């Protein structure tokens, strides 16, 4: 097998494509022949030693991937040889083969392409957990999605529309906003060219959005929060504008009767596995019904990983980048 190894987490340039012995699965594990993997923002942070998870060195980055089961470890009974699965394990995906905990593998229904499967779990689980569980989004409410053309942003648009909400997409270019409207957004705000607060006010007739979905942080957070509706819910999803993590005046939630809500899907999945499994089943059904579908910016060969990282780092990606073997 071959894999991209991170022996020194000082950045993308230090990654090396190396041949390794194909491992054997241990108890509770499966060996996968990988068909596709997607690039997520944490995959960039982890090779820069900026992510909250610090795997032992060396490690293979790539949190999310899909492939075919080629060997079963002891005690694995719910998966079969030759079965197609998608996994999200934090590391291991940027390779030709990977060991994965069997309980972290999602069996794929017939007709679920590997490219879509590799771009599905993290963004859709994060966005569903954020909007439906943490944000308690209801039909008829208005959602503002910041960073709306990215992976979690495009997933959030689709999930909000499936829930019957009105969606305001905010992104940094007209090209990105065109994509957001194509997948269901009702209104677009170009925060690189418009005053964010004035644009939100115009889009909501002065009321403000009921739910704000923020995977960006940075300088957008405070003007967005100041625009929220009475009893609004501000979802703290991530900090793509890192290293600038915003600080908010604590009188703002008081004045708006609003909630500042943390979203940490990974820990939700660990702490509440039954609820997470039910959510994933719902999302798989929505995919089959055509309500959600990953937006894939482009598909590259696995050996082109550094190019993929460069595209993500320069904010040129709309939706998700997928690498294939």
UniProtKB/TrEMBL annotation:
Span of domain Enoyl reductase (ER): 11-323
Gene3D superfamilies linked: Medium-chain alcohol dehydrogenases, catalytic domain (3.90.180.10), NAD(P)-binding Rossmann-like Domain (3.40.50.720)
Cited Pfam families: ADH_N, ADH_zinc_N
PROSITE patterns named in the record: QOR_ZETA_CRYSTAL (PS01162)
The organism's place on the tree of life at top rank: Bacteria
Any GO molecular function: oxidoreductase activity
PANTHER family registered for this protein in UniProt: QUINONE OXIDOREDUCTASE-LIKE PROTEIN 2, SHORT-CHAIN DEHYDROGENASE/REDUCTASE
Protein name from the UniProt record: Zinc-binding alcohol dehydrogenase
Source organism per UniProt: Hylemonella gracilis ATCC 19624
């Amino acid at each position: 097998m071959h894999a991209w190894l991170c022996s020194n987490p000082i950045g993308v340039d230090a990654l090396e494509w190396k041949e390794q012995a194909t491992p054997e699965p241990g108890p509770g594990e499966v060996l996968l022949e990988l068909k596709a993997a997607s690039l997520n923002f944490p995959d960039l942070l982890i090779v820069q030693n900026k992510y909250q998870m610090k795997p032992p060195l060396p490690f293979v980055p790539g949190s999310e991937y899909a492939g075919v089961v080629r060997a079963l470890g002891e005690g694995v009974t719910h998966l079969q040889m030759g079965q197609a699965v998608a996994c999200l394990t934090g590391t291991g995906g940027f390779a030709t083969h990977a060991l994965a905990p069997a309980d972290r593998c999602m069996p794929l229904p017939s007709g679920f392409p590997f490219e879509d499967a590799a771009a599905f779990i993290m963004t859709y689980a994060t966005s569903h957990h954020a909007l439906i569980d943490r944000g308690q989004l209801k039909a008829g409410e208005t959602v503002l999605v910041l960073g709306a053309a990215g992976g979690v942003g495009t997933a959030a648009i689709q999930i909000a529309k499936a829930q019957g909400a009105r969606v305001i997409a905010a992104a940094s270019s007209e090209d990105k906003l065109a994509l957001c409207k194509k997948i269901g957004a009702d209104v677009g705000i170009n925060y690189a060219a418009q005053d964010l607060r004035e644009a939100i006010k115009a889009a909501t007739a002065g009321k403000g959005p009921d739910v704000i979905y923020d995977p960006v942080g940075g300088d957008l957070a405070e003007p967005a929060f100041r625009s929220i509706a009475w009893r609004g819910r501000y979802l703290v999803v991530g900090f793509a504008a890192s290293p600038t993590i915003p600080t908010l005046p604590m009188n703002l939630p008081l004045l708006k009767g609003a909630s500042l809500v943390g979203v940490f899907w990974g820990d939700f999945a660990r702490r509440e596995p039954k609820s997470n499994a039910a959510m994933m089943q719902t999302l798989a059904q929505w995919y089959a019904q055509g309500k959600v579908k990953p937006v894939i910016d482009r598909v590259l060969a696995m050996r082109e990983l550094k190019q993929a990282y460069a595209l993500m780092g320069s904010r040129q990606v709309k939706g998700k980048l997928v690498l294939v073997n």
